[in-house]
Predict the structure.
Amino acid sequence: QRLMLEASWEVLERAGVDPAGLRGKPVGVFTGAVGSDYRPEPGNVPDDVEGYLMTGALGGVLSGRISYVLGLEGPAVTVDTTCSSSLVALHLATQSLRSGESSLALAGGVTVMSSPGAFVGFSRQRRILGVVRGSAVNQDGASNGLTAPNGPSQQRVIRAALANAGLAATEVDAVEAHGTGTSLGRSTGPPVPSSS
């Protein structure tokens, strides 16, 4: 809740919107949040704090906390669709704006994974999501500034990754690459000379 409050305040500040001016208005809060393990167990906290464990850990209170603190009167919705939570929250926010339900909407997400529990749980499923057979790295920033790629350099790095994996291009199902696909990256002209 603290992280979402900070993010909400910052986005309003950056947009030049006075948070105090939104009080009582139909401003919606749409938050994506996966269930959090960021809380102590009952019995491990002082008695005067124990009452906050429930409200501090409930996902539904997350969006409500933003509305409560800022005095917003639009929808307050917390969404948990696991990995797509923030995108679904954004989708709901745009629908609320288009329908006129909200005059303004805050949309975003927050997840704190403070223990390895989720990762241990995934490991117990014994599923292999992918195997990295090979990789390669190079650079040629001489074509358009310091970091922009050029076509021949990208071709070389792809060939190097294939060789590293011991694969032919026809055997590849997916490619993850940075820079490939830009108009500059698709150029097929000769490499631009650069000084060392």
The longest helix spans residues 85-99. The chain is about 35% helix and 10% strand. The CA atoms of residues 58 and 99 lie 28 Å apart.
